[in-house]
Amino acid sequence: MQKEDRNCPGLVQAKIPSQLEKLVGVESEAVGKAEAFTGAFLRNSTQLHSSHNLKSLRYKAVTLGFTRGKKGKKKRNSKKAKGLNARQKREMKVFQIKPEQQRYDLFLPLHELWTQYVVDLCNGLKPSSNPQVIQQKLLKADFHGAIITVVRSKCPSYVGTTGIIVQELKHIFKIITKEDKLKVMPKRNNVFAVEIGGFVSHIYGSKFEHRASERSAKKFKVKGTIDL
What we know:
Shape: rod-shaped
Mean pLDDT: 78
Number of strands: 6
Largest sheet: 6 strands, antiparallel
Order of helices and strands: HHHHHHEEEEEEH
Strand order of the largest sheet: 4-3-2-1-5-6
Number of helices: 7
Radius of gyration: 40 Å
């Protein structure tokens, strides 16, 4: 077995037959060029010191150098655009409605869109519809465009106030009344009534102090009695 191994270099360095050269499309190099290429290849591919003799590598396993790919995905250089913070929004008056836009008739088309949105959400409002199912769906609905009325409040001056919701924040409703006045109604300590197609739903503001985006994912528990 050892004798066959020692003959291997001779077989590797043997000249390729001319017929095979034409078939494969390669040409045999001279012995001197082959040895020079082999030496250069081994020095570039291994951590071999220049003073070492290449003949010392005979019959030894040699690990060639390689580049290991980086694990994980490549980080993108592109940076995500940052949104405005709360202070910048206040400075730019993002949530303020201009006085010339505080008109009740200007928001009536929004109310019509909201009514159709709620009807589709509840799969049609019919006399046979289950009030509890509709109530649960309304709790997670978006109320921009709804007409609400304050029916109970710890502040008597709020009772009877009606208008279209133009903005809903965590603790307040901003509504436009029929007198074209913008009013800020706190949710806490107020009960609001919403009427859609003859169906009246009551909203207890103290249990409704969530943003519209947060409320859509919140689970509301059914309680027997609710205080203001």
